[in-house]
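Changelog-linked ticket: flavin-adenine dinucleotide example.
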Amino acid sequence: MLNYNLSYWERETFFKDIDLAIIGSGIVGLAAAIHAKTTNPNLQVAILERGTLPIGASTRNAGFACFGSMTELLDDLSRMTEDDVLALVEQRWRGLHLLRSMVGDQNMDFEMLGGYELFTDDEESAFQECLERMPDFNQKMAAITGVNDTYQPVDERLPSFGFHGVRHLILNRSEGQVHTGKMMKKLLELAHAKGVRIFNGIGIRSIADTKNGVQLETDFGWQLHAPKVLVAVNGFAKRLLPNLDVIPARNQVLITQKIPNLAVKGCFHYDRGYYYFRNIDGRILLGGGRFLAFEEETTDQFGSNEMIRSALAQLLHTVICPEQKPAIDSWWSGILGLGPIKKPIIEHVSSNVVVSVRLSGMGVAIGSLVGKSGADLVLG
Ligand SMILES: Cc1cc2nc3c(=O)[nH]c(=O)nc-3n(C[C@H](O)[C@H](O)[C@H](O)COP(=O)(O)OP(=O)(O)OC[C@H]3O[C@@H](n4cnc5c(N)ncnc54)[C@H](O)[C@@H]3O)c2cc1C
């Protein structure tokens, strides 16, 4: 790591008069910056991002624009009150609309292809429970989204997908998908166009309150000062603020080579959502399986896990594309921020520092809202 001081010129230009410093340039940090500059164009907003790109979850996710499959919501109901679960669904739905209005559907290839939940022979009772709860869920979803019959059993579509060992399918008509890379590129462009100063390659090592604001110590050893700071580092939050209840969680993802005449289109949730896959550019993107090596994957370090990767490859070749058995083009990992319940933390940690973290694997949906709320809170 380089160790140096800022020159007078650097200090008096690039880092001068910052009103709001945002740590992290994922969906949350960028949405916060764009919102802050939109509501107050004179505000000097700087983003400090340690990666050459925003390297966490926002450029590494699956791009599901989703607000909950039936088994996911049933699972949430076992941990949270119904009011809280429905509030979260509404937050995801509103967040998706905010994201779409900011970025524009055409700029991130937004498509409403639907989301499907797959049920195997062993999951008959889970499927029956979903069928029983479906009328009630549909009524509650309609009150939030305005869409009737959100969830529908669609077993008749199974033959066209060509899955192996799948007995039932439930469709979520209102689930969409985005091109994650294009979405993030557009958010970066919007932030630049608004005059947000984005500094890549600056990691923040510590945050300290001062008499008139906040001092940020960079990994290079020099300090920055800003009256207000928003921390938007999601799964990496504990490194900066050890008392925050955020657990890092690594996810492994693969993408196949192009598959001729790929019939699989939409977002798919397998094994209660522990695995997820979708079509993109004539390929399959597949991820998940973290529970197979729970402790090893509870980390904020990127890296591979061969056991999980071989489980994903097997799922691809035996269940998802058993006929084509497509070759795998490449792998990557990404870092989520989780907690005991699926609720983001948007709060003051001191009078001039706010955190907007713990997106719980829903950041495409709620990231823009979480960023906006964090910016509003810190700017008071
Ligand atoms: C594999 C995978 C699949 C997913 N699939 C979906 C999906 O389909 N749908 C969905 O809604 N959500 C999904 N998610 C979750 C979603 O991507 C996240 O919730 C969202 O991107 C979080 O955004 P963020 O801005 O809070 O965090 P991040 O995108 O992680 O951004 C945090 C940024 O902070 C930077 N940073 C960290 N520490 C420091 C520091 N000390 N100093 C400076 N910078 C720092 C990091 O480099 C990073 O760029 C998925 C996540 C993963 C990993």
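Closing comment: Example verified and attached. The chain has two domains: 8-59+181-245+341-379, 111-177+247-338. DSSP finds ten helices and 19 strands in the chain.
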